[in-house]
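Field: COMPLEX_INPUT
Field: COMPONENT_COUNT = two
Field: RESIDUE_TOTAL = 867
Field: MODE = joint
Values follow.
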Amino acid sequence: MNVGSAIRNAGFIIGLGVITIGLFLLYNPTSAAAVPFNLIVGDLAAAMAIILAVWVVRARWGSQLQETPVPDVEYRMASPSPGDEIDSMIYRLTEYGEGTIEFRERIYERLHEITTAVIAHQRGISNEQAEQVLASGEWTDNAVAANYFGGAAHGADDESVLDQFIDKWRSRKSPYERELETVVGAIEEIGDFFEDSELERDDEEEDEFRSMSMSDIRVGGDDSGERVADHVRYLGEFSTFQWTGIIAFALAAIGVGTIASQPALLLAGGLAIGLAGYSQLGPYPGLTDLEVSRSLSEEMPEPGDEVDVTVTVENTGSSLLPDLKLIDQVPPTMTVVDGSPRMGTALRAGNSVTFGYTVVAERGEHDWPLQVVARDVSGAREREALIDTDTTMNCVPRLKTITEMPVRMQTSMFAGGVETRVGGDGLEFFSVRDYMPGDPKRRIDWKTYARTGEFSTIDFREENAARVVLLFDGRQSSYVTHEPGQKHALDKGIDAAIDVFASLNDQGHLIGVAAFNGIPCWLGPSTGQLHLERVRNVFTEHPAISPMPPELTDKDEGRYIDPMIHIRRQLPENTQIFLFSPLTDQYTYEVARRLDGAGHLVTIISPDPSNDRSVGNRIARLERQIRVKYLRDHGIRVVDWDPDENMTLALEYAQRRWGA
Amino acid sequence: MAATAQESETEEELPDSALSAEEEQLESATISSVEEEDFEVVEVIHAPPRIGQIIAIVAAFLGMAITAPFTVLAIPFGLAGIAIFIAAMTAMQSRGWLTVGTGLILLGAILTGSFGVLTPEIMLMGVGLVLIGWDAGQHAITLGNQLGRQTRSHRNQLVHTAFTALAVGIIGGILFGIYQFAGDGRPAPAVAIMIVGIIFTAWLLRK
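Field: COMPLEX_OUTPUT
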């Protein structure tokens, strides 16, 4: 017990002593008459009470009311979008005046690079020439954009003064941000990348996404908090200040009541004091006797399956828990599609409560705790705890073809490595040749025989098994999404890869899985049941392609190691690479170029995480588009996959382009 | 023999698949779009549960209605207080503003009380109701923040409010009992000493 609370307790004893004396005197008027007394004393005390009341109100004003933050576990975590870092730079620059020179310079350099690349690409000139064009300002009709890069304006500024004024009045954006928007708009225009109506967009529109804030995530298995029982961890306890301020009313009522000699007010003040005392009564609720059991309708679901979860919480202790809020901490990669994983209740000793909800399973081995937020009977004290359960959901991809990839599509898709120039058994027509004794009967072309009376044999194109490695970009920059609350690009890539793997495996190709990340991940191309099992394991629980971003999961990893080293060492020659990456930074681009240079056929399947919600996002989108264009110029196939479409459709588009 | 059967199967399939290539692609697109998540994520509505809103507003309104209207000076406080109270419970969902509203209603009650219009039992009842409403409102807003409206939580709200109401009842009853017992012939010094003691204790209880 510290000094403060000792003084406080002594004060309470004195206070109660004084009240007792008062009660005694009330009961015994004769001794009361003996007390030397002047009404002024009472009035002084009353005036003091009113002053104290004002003081309490002042102290309460603006004080933070407390409650435990609860994450929106129903939603998927909010992965960032590419370009968010630019927006945060702009925000810090305009709101806090941080890095005025540094941030401006960085943004300028990125825009400069983009514009040069766009101009060079558009006009088929070298980068140096493009820079000259940029400096001259003749690349755009937009005066603001031309000025931004130091060029003189060409063409008139078609915005009237009035329009500008209205713009300024309507948008809450800083002049700098609006300048950037104009520049980016001008680049988009000359780049002509986005023919669709995306350019026109309503600035006032407020997007609302269903997502769970990253900062609230309580990662399962994390050993934070104080372990008070086998399965219970206390995270924190604090006063909620639910009743703070009631004393102000009490003091004011008693003060006014004394001066005005109104017993009704004295009683009202007394009631308030009594309630303040009531709020001090309860101890922090003890949660060690809560038993949690969770059952799943399916313990080993496949990704995408709906699983019903039923949670039962029992109070096995001997006291009432008057205020319980139970929040099942659904893993951040999963979403709740029915019911609520939360429950608010009160549990008497021996009672239990059951609630249920439905989640969509995602790959990985999941066990998750139950978050309990409990308060004492008056609601003044709150304690947060996590209760672990033994239930584990093991969600393993089945690796069976779900999206049937048409064979024709397949053969042309893996051109070069797969098709041979040898006729024989196969599926695709190759040639007709003279019949040779021993040819299978079913390959004889009977129509020719009917016409000419000669036997001839149809040859089909022979197909060889290819060696393919599915390569994932597992770095932090892959954990981005076009809309918060949607799957991030890595998970989308893995979903696609599971399909591709199954499809390729059915065709008998040798497939490997690898990822570049601080953590080595390599599974050489192979086939067979054992290999399939290994691949399943990699997809399910390999930390290099974990569904949770590295910044949340691992503490220390050797980021200084080039993540590609271990892959390049092990990659067999003549292996095709399927690279899954959102292409949000230059590194993946370099990787693809290097692999291509080393003679591997590279196909990039790139879930597009870009969007146009903010100027930063638009800058990142431009950068990505340029990367895609450059890669294609170098003969690397890129499937630019719009995340709202399904993979089959994206492949279909890509095929048409490749075929052309 | 088995091999031949298999081969002839392939041959039969060949023209078929060539013919219906378009169809097949369409079909596979549909298959995968079913497989793609078409699930609608449930919505989390961070608003106080209805039952909490109703309890809080009704209690505060009743408390205001039996204390404020008896003095002209108190009426504006009562009305402004209940308006802010309702706004804090519905649109703003703010515990801070809820307290401001409650404070105004109680200020109205003190004004009324200072003119001696209210009997002690009515005063106790009115202030008790306002305080019950204030507590229920804060509790409901917290439930809205932590659990949301879509979650079952009425038991939690009801138990909490029942305990508060019980505490108000018991404390009010005891106070009223003392008042009845002390009666009219109360010696001023005794009351004054008690009040000093109570103020001192209250100051210690303020947090």
